[in-house]
Amino acid sequence: MIQKTPEAARPVLIVPYVWIGDFVRCHSVVRLLKAQDPDRPVDIVSSTLCAPLADYMPGVRQAIVADLPRRRLGLGLQVRLARELRRQGYGQALVMSRKWKAALAPWLAGIPLRTGFVGEARIGLINDLRPGERQLPRMIDQMGALALPKDATLPTDWPLPELKVPAAEVEAWRLNSRLETGKGPVVTLSPGAVGAGKAWPPEFYARLAQAMVQDGVAVWVLGGPAETPITRQIVDAAGAGARDLTGGDLRNAVLALAAASLAVTNDSGLMHVSAALGTPTVAIFGPTSPWHWKPLNPVAAILEPEGEPQARERARTLGNPAVAHHRTADVSVERVLEAVRKVLAERPR
Question: What is the average per-residue pLDDT within 50-54?
Answer without folding.
Answer: 97
